[in-house]
Amino acid sequence: MKNNVALTGFMGVGKTSVGKLLAERLGKKYVEADSLIVEKAGKAIPRIFQEDGEIAFRQLEIEIIKKLASQENLVIDCGGGVVLNKINIDRLRQNAIVVSLTASPETILKRTSSNGDGRPVLKQNNGIGGIISLLRLRKPYYEQAAEIKIDTSKLSIESAVAKIIEQLKENEDFH
Ligand code: S3P
């Protein structure tokens, strides 16, 4: 039986807001992989990208996901790029149901435009065009990782959480 939920999906699909409420509803602990990466590196994500490069960031991400994957009763808010390294998904799947949240490029643009500076990947792929091409590139990774898929574009946080819980209940591997 699995007792973690791993939330994946592109930046701005609602992993954080959905994750916090989902954890509350399931009586599990919400953890954000990015925060643990920042703690471990001792600097913010844009600085890790700038000073050490994306590969160093992904390495830290792999270490943090490995640690979280071995813990119990968590709702894990995975950064948008966690799916890019298969090892992360393999490890998470040992004790987690993987949920992929999706949203339209327009919704993503709207939701991420207030925090552009905190997301170096969106600085390199900016505007609606950047989001569309990066989404196209990453879509197969999110699809492959997902056991549950929810489009949050037109959903409130409440309804997205309700939909996830409904599907988790149907999953015999989860408690
Ligand atoms: C990234 C997403 C970010 C963060 C980093 C890289 C990505 O997390 O991990 O900036 O490559 O998609 P959020 O999806 O929580 O914004």
Summarize the structure.
By secondary structure, the chain is of the alpha/beta class. It has helices at residues 15-26, 33-41, 45-52, 54-69, 86-93, 105-112, 120-124, 127-145, 157-169, and strands spanning 4-8, 29-32, 74-77, 96-102, 148-151. Strands 2-3-1-4-5 form a five-stranded parallel sheet, with helices on both faces.
Bound molecules: shikimate-3-phosphate
Q: Considering DSSP H and I runs of 4 or more, what fraction of the residues is helical?
A: 55-70%
* Strand order in space, largest sheet: 2-3-1-4-5
Q: Helix- and strand-based class?
A: alpha/beta
Radius of gyration: 15 Å
Query: What is the tally of beta strands?
Result: 5
Description:
- The protein is an alpha/beta fold and 175 residues long.
- The protein contains nine helices and five strands, in the order βαβαααβαβαααβα.
- The chain has helices at 15-26, 33-41, 45-52, 54-69, 86-93, 105-112, 120-124, 127-145, 157-169, and strands at 4-8, 29-32, 74-77, 96-102, 148-151.
- A five-stranded parallel beta sheet has the order 2-3-1-4-5, with helices on both faces.
- The chain is globular, with a radius of gyration of 15 Å.
- It starts with a strand and ends in a 6-residue tail after the last helix.
- The model has no long low-confidence stretch (mean pLDDT 96).
- Bound molecules: shikimate-3-phosphate.
